[in-house]
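FYI - complex with glutathione, inputs then prediction.
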Amino acid sequence: MRLVIGNKNYSTWSLRPWMLLDAFHVSFDEQLVSLNAERLSNRLSEFSDTARVPVLQDEGLSVWDSLAICEYLNDNYLAGQGWPEGKSDKAIARAICAEMHAGLSAMRNEMPMNVRASRYVELSAAAQADLQRVDAIWSEHARPDSHGDLRLFGKFSIADCFFAPVVMRCACYQPELSAAAQAYADSMRQHPSLQKWIADALSETEVIDEDEAGIDR
Ligand SMILES: N[C@@H](CCC(=O)N[C@@H](CS)C(=O)NCC(=O)O)C(=O)O
């Protein structure tokens, strides 16, 4: 199985399924394609008609879109363990992932993930409202897991993978969060898979100008 991803410093959508695979110890190869703007669409259309990453290639099948990839992994490799247990937690987890997937766009646009950087950005009212929504989700649903680490719904799942890029955005731009939300972000940042991703991102040197925002702290 191979996961085609973008630069680890910048590619939020790639981080989601990568983290799921790594955290559940599913064996896979990764292929990193630079998100450098030059001929990007041509380079990415080799892997998917959408010309976007991530793309999962498995036994002749190609699956694009981070949510579809996570669902595929949950069905075929994780025996359903990718989502929280229980009807209500599972439904809410799916709902907040859908919310993250389809919305919160002001925050996404104004706070691009940049693992290497520590920046200040002046956020619009819309981005601040998105952040408040994220804060509410983390505050309401983060609970200690069996090791005492804070995870959404009390057990690492696709929901944590979907919000891991926001954890990294917050690490870069350091917006003010409630104590509960900050505690979740701090705990998630220590997750071994996220630590591996961060180490890989720090070793990258390519700068993608379109994804650089804010001023250095
Ligand atoms: N909805 C897609 C979005 C994927 C996406 O936009 N990926 C970015 C990289 S993080 C990309 O491929 N950008 C290339 C471009 O915009 O040309 C998903 O969830 O996988």
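The chain is about 50% helix and 10% strand. Residues 45 and 51 are 4 Å apart (CA to CA).
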